[in-house]
Amino acid sequence: MKSRWIRGGSSAGLALLGLLVLTFMIGRVMPLDPVLAIVGPDADRATYEQVYRQLGLDRPLWVQFGRYLGDLVQGDLGRALLTGRPVTEDLARVLPATIELATLAILLGALLGVPLGVWAASHHKRWPDHIARVVGLAGHSTPVFWFGMMGLLVFYAWLGWAGGIGRIGLGFEGAVPRVTGLMLVDTLLAGDTAALQSALRHLLLPACVLGLHSMAYLSRMTRSFMLAQLNQEYITTARVKGLSRRQVVWGHAFLNIRVQLLTILALAYGGLLEGAVLVETVFGWPGFGSYLTGSLLLGDMNAVMGSVLVIGLLFVALNLTADALYRVFDPRARS
To answer: One Pfam family, short name please (predicted)?
Structure first.
């Protein structure tokens, strides 16, 4: 067990190092000039050269990367050009917003998508299956930003149910002390019921839009896993013994796809954390996706490298968590 975790940690470390090297090299060949982003297009040549040297861009690539790794070991991700603050502070500020959004979205997606997939598989080639497939196809193929704009138009502009853009109403901005960065948790800790209601109204619509996309993916994968199990001989045996449909589907077939679902859920959650850019843009959500997009457009490689490292760490953590849960749900994985 211990050697397995050591091998897993070594593989994860090598993967993160390769990810950093690849991102660093791509950043150096991008047609964006971080120096111009600092000094502006009207700066003279002497100012440009001075900033160019201060950033260390005059040194060989291997020296620049080695210097970056040295700072990284000390917990220093550099300073972001976009905000002028340390990248670690920026990431600590924007990550909770995306984590809050993605967590609620994956919960909604799983609570709707998994039962929908099971329902479709247990009624294979009948009308429930056709309905579930159409819903999954529509949710997976329709652009998420279109869902977002339609949601704002209907639930915010017409019905007034949603809270609009941002994480909380303007009247509550700065009024809730920041403790965890998770708006729902911070409003609960502050005991501010009105702020909590405002945060919920702002969170539910983007979470539902993002959750609808994940629901479509999870329902399709669950349906595929369940169909593979329902065609096995042990299912036929269970039916011959006189077990009810519910016992066969949920008590036998579903139990055998739990490990596969864990992998899909971990990947889907990681995808929501890194891929919520369009939803955050539509809803003005100050999260990780918006920060990474702005950094890429500016050519801010410190912020980009720090963001890529966080994405890699998140996926490694999710994979390790899923691997640990395998041993809980599948006794064969413990040997």
So the answer is: BPD_transp_1
